[in-house]
């Protein structure tokens, strides 16, 4: 009777009431790890139009730059997939806080080393190792936040955790916008500061202990061999199989469309700034017979105009990135609240349908028809809200699908196996000539596939985590 009364009293509290100081500390440390996690990934996005041309010794719009950038994206996603699964399993076996320290040290070290890259292939390889730590950190932190928080707060807290990623993107955008003033090798400084997150590991070591649920799971594993922690094969057995298929499918759709669509929201204001640069230098926006220029001559004049207006073009790109990210942050932050109202499945359907519509609006209507900078600036946050916001659902939903002894393994596998599909897409795009906007349009229908996947998903809203 007393347990029932206590549960009823707890359910009447708002999500932020009754949260202990330690629970807030877990959220803060997990979120900071995720902020730096995202910075390490997005600093490449912010600097790829500077770093790769410098490593290749060509201009930014050279086709080789796009090919090597796509290979770097693919390598990053492949590394994230492997690291996410490996470190997710490790967190189930040796503990959440211990594994979090390892993953943060991993991505900090290799991001810093990237500052010394001397060739494009070195960049590709180093992005793989950075991503191993990045993918692992998310698996560990999402499981830990879910296990530490009460049921009434879990969805909102997990959304806050995932939404903190926007600060990492904004830090990368700021670095991309301002370090350019440091000279030709400015992009290297953005990677060099990637060593700073390593300091966070000291705080983790001193402040965090393992969640009680994980401790109990380890005790059960010691007494019963059938309850062993971190066994990958169990993700494909019994009821876990459906959850794993649904989780991997949702993550694949969200990550493919993120890297192939959402990030190119930064092209919205970039294209306008490039057009203004061409007009200022009296270079035609497109080449035709009337210009009297050969393909090579037009390309040279175009590049000269872009070089002369390099700073405003870069800042327009970073402003697009910032507006897109701000909207995405709101979408991430509100996913938990929306999923508590509509259920996990209802929230996923809403975000997927709206994201499909916004992809068409942005890339087929607005950018393609040279919409005004004002219209684009107003649309970017809405675009970001839905195309990025659904990702908080992975932090909310995936830990709810598995028992404690498999939580890090399962959440890490679902989220990071989605990177394999994305890696395959980018290696494919790297082999063909296609514009960023067309990539996005080709991928947009995947959001509708996501709606179909959701109908096969398990509803977990309002339920306690499985022991």
As an assembly, this protein is single chain
CATH topology: Growth Hormone, Chain: A
Cα-to-Cα separation, first versus last residue: 22 Å
Please bin the fraction of helical residues: over 70%
Number of strands: 0
CATH superfamily: MFS general substrate transporter like domains
Number of domains: 1
Number of helices: 19
Structural class, by secondary structure, is mainly alpha
What number is the mean pLDDT? 87
Write down the Rg.
23 Å
Main β-sheet: number of strands, strand sense, barrel status? none
Low-confidence stretches: 1-8
In the CATH scheme, the class would be: Mainly Alpha
Strand content: under 5%
| Global outline | globular
SSE run: HHHHHHHHHHHHHHHHHHH
User: In the CATH classification, which architecture applies?
Assistant: Up-down Bundle
Transmembrane segments: 24-45, 71-89, 101-118, 124-148, 160-180, 186-208, 318-336, 348-368, 374-398, 410-434, 440-457
Subcellular location: Membrane
Keywords: Membrane, Transmembrane, Transmembrane helix
Protein name: Sialic acid transporter
Notes on the protein architecture:
- The protein has helices spanning 2-11, 21-56, 63-94, 96-114, 120-148, 151-163, 165-178, 187-192, 200-207, 212-223, 239-260, 267-280, 295-308, 310-366, 373-389, 392-397, 404-430, 436-443, 446-454.
- It contains 19 helices and no strands.
- The chain is globular.
- The longest helix has 57 residues, at 310-366.
- 55% of the residues are buried.
- The chain has one domain (21-202, 233-454): MFS general substrate transporter like domains (Growth Hormone, Chain: A, Up-down Bundle), CATH 1.20.1250.20.
- It is an all-alpha fold and 467 residues long.
- Helices cover 76% and strands 0% of the residues.
- InterPro entries: MFS, MFS_dom, MFS_trans_sf.
- It is found in: Membrane.
- One of its GO terms (molecular function) is carboxylic acid transmembrane transporter activity.
